[in-house]
Amino acid sequence: MTGYAEQLTDHIRQGVIPPYNYSYPSRSTYRPLDGSWTAEEAWKQDLSLYQVPELNLYLHVPFCRYKCGFCNLYTVISEDVDVYTAYTNALCTQLRDHADIIRARRLRTVYIGGGTPSLLSLRHFEQLFGTLDEVYPNWRSTVEEVAIEATPDSIVNEPATLEGLLQLGLTRANIGIQSLVPKEIREAGRGQAGEHVIRKAIEIVHDKGLPDLSTDLIMGFAGQTDATWRTSVDELAKLNPATISTYFLTVRPDAWFSKTGAYQYAQSPNLYERYDYARQVFTDHGYVQEGSVRYKKLGRGGYRQKVLTFHGVPLLGLGVGARSYTGVLDYMAGSVKPSMSEVTDYITKATAHTLRPVTGFVLDDEEIIRKRLVLDTFDLDLAELDRFGYQDKAHLFEPILDAAEETGLLRRLGRRVQLTPEGFKYRDILSWMFFSDTVVQLDREYYERLHEQNRRARKHMGTPVGISGIRTARAAS
């Protein structure tokens, strides 16, 4: 058995649970750019990499009514309609400023994320979609998915907004559920979205005829047991959403749970048994596995933007805190720290057309290859990576792929690689092995700095510091 195979086998035996890899390099590796990059230059270079240029469009709306304890996304608490209106105006201005970038590609998906975008009123969405009509008139003919994130209470409180969104072209809504056990919902800081609200939201979405309702459950909440997990899984399967995701709870240092040190969450190897239970129940109910965390009803569920991004289709992120993924640079424009003052700054700069990439990670050919291997081993033709020099760099990657095949996580079909069912289960253990030393070091520095800030803050507040830490990339692999 090779060294990599021994490492994989050992981590699987230990039940290591790394954070879920949904991007590479992660935001933790971004550093201030030198000022030479513009969005136009990054996307011009990106265009030269693709024979059939395509694009995913992501629009970020940062506003929430409350902050979930485990959330480390770019969100701010606000229910100020005037702020919503000013923000929508700025986002539409930024959308028009990127018209040439969008028009140079075939638009594949549109995703409005957050935050809680469903807090916006229907007139705000009509303005956004109207601006998209101006920029890319045939977008409804080319996109495969138009999605929005929502909370159960926002659906229940404003069902007319959902109905209007359906008329505008909405095909999928991601409704955060996390659990169907009331105590666990409260522990997560989601007391406003009790079990009855969740069920009512799902009922409304089904009644309105939304093609794809996407929901999620989280393994590892404080107080969660095998029995309560089974309750959530069984009940959600009966509710029959088109898409279900199951995540291991990760409390990163920039989430409230970690900052306060008041929350102890599970990171037990036994959580993989909960994964096994969920997979069995969902497949018994007619779901197929789309990824390591996601199940869908064949032909109508799924998360198309994520799948395409994993396959290498670039993503243009607009709005405060949004990330863009090109073939040469992953970047954020404007603010990188969530606060209302930074939202105001974004509105000012977007209106004045002065936004530009401020922080990011420059990708060379090796990092492009690593990105695809980290994200896309579910089903990847390695020949697609030859134009980035895969053959010359194969010695960096083939031993890891061989080890994955040896340990039963991966199968080879010519030059195509595909994860096995066991590979889906332990995908993140394998993914971390493709991280470059540079990315590992940047990730470690970022999280060690946050941990130290949290320790100092908790010491100052007199709060216990004994909270479970988050593994850095190297520790997890």
Give the tally of structural domains.
Answer: 2
Under CATH at level 1, the class of the largest domain stands as Alpha Beta
Query: What amount of the residues lies in strands?
Result: 15-25%
CATH architecture of the largest domain: Alpha-Beta Horseshoe
Q: Which percent bin holds the helix content?
A: 40-55%
Question: How many beta strands in the DSSP annotation?
Answer: 18
Strand order of the largest sheet: 10-11-9-8-7-6-5-2-12
Largest sheet: 9 strands, mixed
Q: Please identify which CATH superfamily of the largest domain we are dealing with.
A: tm_1862 like domain
Provide the gyration radius in Å.
22 Å
In terms of per-residue confidence, which ranges show pLDDT below 50 for 5 or more consecutive residues?
A: 256-260, 463-477
How far is the N terminus from the C terminus?
18 Å
Overall geometry comes to globular
Tell me the number of helical segments per DSSP (H or I, 4 or more residues long): 21
